[in-house]
């Protein structure tokens, strides 16, 4: 029988450069998984907060000082050598000159286009999350009209759009998805659609988005490159993790006409729902605008999902 080993708390950070590239480091000789690539970081020492540990590790390993960082994903992984609880941060600004103090290599990487490897086994899904943008724009043509949305997409195509049109029948949805894709994908953006996966077969999209009810009824991951899900509580969050989803939507954070009868979570409530953190990137949803992005980051979100706010 395997003995109960204690969990080692680790903090790791991904430096985000202005051009969107991020930093990986190689693990030095003499450590488990030497030569594998990782986000710089290390074990949290007794009495340290994760942020303090992050600052210390970056200084010890790379000689730089972390100035601004926000909590991002949390993941428990069982290795042969230890069970680790990894707290990943995104580091937005730093000072000082890079100095490879452990003889390691570093590499600036483009999300989705890795040129180094192998990665530490726990890090795969984390890297996929780096491909997601800060803002997810959700369509609401049933409220503001398709014309407004299509014109906005043509003028400034967002990096990710979720087509969500609850009143549409299959043919209507397929037509609208094609219109959206034709404007978003040539510019490099991703298109997700909220519908029965069977409705979406053969459409030019990057992923399917599952409502909470559809998520709970699903017993295998739908066969799309990206799978997202809306969740409200712990049960759905865990189901989405077990299914292998790639991102979550959680709300509503602020009052919204979509849910006039239930109280908003607020930012503290949002963070509470993530409880001990989440291995999947979570977009905050509900009554938000891009002005809320800093708050969203501070509370552990991937970014903000905007419905009306995306098209005004
Ligand atoms: N730093 C870092 N560690 C990771 C990542 N992913 C991952 O599974 N780990 C694991 C590998 C290790 O078991 C543990 C981190 O330990 P470490 O060896 O870096 O710790 P440390 O810098 O404090 O080094 P040491 O003083 O113990 O030698 O977390 C990651 O992206 N970055
Ligand atoms: Mg380390």
UniProtKB/TrEMBL annotation:
<dbReference type="InterPro" id="IPR022998">
    <property type="entry name" value="ThiamineP_synth_TenI"/>
</dbReference>
<dbReference type="InterPro" id="IPR020476">
    <property type="entry name" value="Nudix_hydrolase"/>
</dbReference>
<dbReference type="InterPro" id="IPR015797">
    <property type="entry name" value="NUDIX_hydrolase-like_dom_sf"/>
</dbReference>
<keyword id="KW-0227">DNA damage</keyword>
<keyword id="KW-0378">Hydrolase</keyword>
<dbReference type="Pfam" id="PF14815">
    <property type="entry name" value="NUDIX_4"/>
</dbReference>
<dbReference type="InterPro" id="IPR013785">
    <property type="entry name" value="Aldolase_TIM"/>
</dbReference>
<keyword id="KW-0460">Magnesium</keyword>
<feature type="domain" description="Nudix hydrolase">
    <location>
        <begin position="6"/>
        <end position="134"/>
    </location>
</feature>
<dbReference type="InterPro" id="IPR047127">
    <property type="entry name" value="MutT-like"/>
</dbReference>
<keyword id="KW-0479">Metal-binding</keyword>
<comment type="similarity">
    <text>Belongs to the Nudix hydrolase family.</text>
</comment>
<dbReference type="InterPro" id="IPR036206">
    <property type="entry name" value="ThiamineP_synth_sf"/>
</dbReference>
<keyword id="KW-0515">Mutator protein</keyword>
<keyword id="KW-0235">DNA replication</keyword>
<protein>
    <recommendedName>
        <fullName>8-oxo-dGTP diphosphatase</fullName>
        <ecNumber>3.6.1.55</ecNumber>
    </recommendedName>
</protein>
<dbReference type="InterPro" id="IPR000086">
    <property type="entry name" value="NUDIX_hydrolase_dom"/>
</dbReference>
<keyword id="KW-0234">DNA repair</keyword>
<dbReference type="Pfam" id="PF02581">
    <property type="entry name" value="TMP-TENI"/>
</dbReference>
<dbReference type="GO" id="GO:0016787">
    <property type="term" value="F:hydrolase activity"/>
</dbReference>
<dbReference type="InterPro" id="IPR029119">
    <property type="entry name" value="MutY_C"/>
</dbReference>
<dbReference type="InterPro" id="IPR020084">
    <property type="entry name" value="NUDIX_hydrolase_CS"/>
</dbReference>
């Amino acid at each position: 029988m395997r003995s109960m080993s204690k969990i080692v708390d680790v903090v790791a950070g991904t430096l985000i450069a202005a051009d969107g590239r991020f930093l990986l480091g190689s693990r030095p000789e003499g450590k488990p998984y030497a030569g594998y690539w990782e986000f710089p970081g290390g074990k949290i020492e007794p009495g340290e907060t994760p942020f303090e540990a992050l600052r210390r590790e970056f200084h010890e390993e790379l000689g730089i000082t972390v100035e601004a960082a926000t909590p991002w994903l949390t993941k428990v992984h069982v290795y042969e050598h230890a069970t680790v609880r990894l707290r990943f941060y995104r580091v937005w600004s730093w000072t000082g000159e890079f100095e490879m103090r452990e003889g390691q290599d570093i590499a600036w990487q483009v999300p989705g286009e890795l040129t180094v490897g192998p990665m530490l086994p726990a890090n795969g899904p984390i890297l996929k999350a780096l491909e997601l943008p800060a803002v997810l724009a959700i369509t609401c043509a049933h409220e503001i009209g398709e014309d407004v949305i299509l014109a906005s997409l043509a003028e400034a195509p967002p990096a990710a759009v979720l087509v969500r049109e609850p009143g549409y029948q299959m043919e209507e949805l397929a037509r609208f998805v094609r219109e959206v894709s034709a404007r978003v994908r040539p510019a490099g953006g991703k298109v997700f659609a909220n519908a029965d996966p069977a409705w979406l077969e053969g459409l030019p999209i990057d992923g399917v988005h599952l409502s909470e009810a559809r998520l709970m009824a699903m017993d295998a991951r739908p066969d799309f490159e990206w799978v997202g899900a809306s969740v409200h509580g712990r049960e759905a969050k865990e189901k989405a993790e077990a299914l292998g989803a790639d991102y979550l939507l959680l709300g509503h954070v602020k009052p919204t006409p979509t849910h006039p009868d239930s109280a908003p979570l607020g930012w503290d409530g949002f963070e509470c729902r993530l409880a001990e953190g989440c291995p999947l990137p979570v977009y905050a949803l509900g009554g938000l605008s891009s002005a809320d992005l800093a708050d969203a980051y501070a509370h552990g979100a991937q970014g903000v999902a905007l419905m009306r706010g995306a098209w005004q």
